[in-house]
Amino acid sequence: MKNVVAYCRVSTDAQAGDDKYGIEAQKRVIMEYCSKNDMQISGWYIDEGESGVKENRPQLNALLYGEVQNPPVEAVIVYKSDRIARDIKLYFYYMMLLEKKKIELISATEPIVDDGTGLGNVYRSLMLFVAEQERANITRRTSGGRAIKSSKGGYSGGRPPYGYKPVDGVLTIIPAEAEVVRKIFEMKKSGATYQQVCDALNEEGKTNRSGTKFSISTVQTILANENTYRGMYRYGKSGEWVKGVHEPILKEDE
């Protein structure tokens, strides 16, 4: 019986519980494959919330650079090749690292027979190319939809500025944070320094979004978002400012 370990990956928390592609679904397929092919799983390595194009993944790193060796581990089993990497170059680099440790990389849903002619690697390349194109198409569709929404002033994702939270796709005012935003702009308008603003807020017991004291950099970030606080919106740093659909925190005379 071949001794193996299994690797699973999902990109988002939502995918983790997905019936078709989630962690449990991947585990079921891998266990069925191992049962049919006389393999014993001695360990599971699972990365959740990690993109297939990201190089630094904790559990994958443990497989590639950690103490996993042959013997006793003879192979790494994955649900699909793109769980290891969606980038072709990364995939074959990781495959090479495992092969240097005499560990085979096996896909439970894409059985590939290497007959010495190199056709196995050609087939892997084709599958990963398809995965790359699929990801590129999803990115284009998502970016296009966000661009259209942002051009109409609607919230299109990303970290909302202090003072707002997204509700049903619209930036919505958080009253307690909005009060802090107004105070910051009032103090700067009256000539206060960044440090004086921080000291005043911290003395009042105000905290930033992470629950810690205000720092100069946090105050500077809030001041840099003045257009948003005045009812304007843009998606990304290169987009154009348009009138937002959200309620302004700062009025014309503030």
Question: Which structural category do the helix and sheet elements fall into?
Answer: alpha/beta
CATH class type of the largest domain: Alpha Beta
Give the % helix.
40-55%
Question: What would you say the CATH architecture of the largest domain is?
Answer: 3-Layer(aba) Sandwich
Q: What is the number of domains?
A: 2
The shape is elongated
Measured distance between first and last alpha carbons: 74 Å
Helix tally?
9
Q: What is the averaged pLDDT score? A: 78
Strand content: 15-25%
- List unreliable stretches of 5+ residues: 141-153
**Rounded Rg:** 25 Å
Main β-sheet description: 4 strands, parallel
- Here the CATH topology of the largest domain equals Rossmann fold
Task: Give me the side-by-side strand order of the main sheet.
Answer: 2-1-3-4
User: Could you spell the SSE succession in H and E letters?
Assistant: EHHEHEHEHEEHHHHEE
User: CATH homologous superfamily of the largest domain, by name?
Assistant: Resolvase, N-terminal catalytic domain
**How many β strands by DSSP?**
8
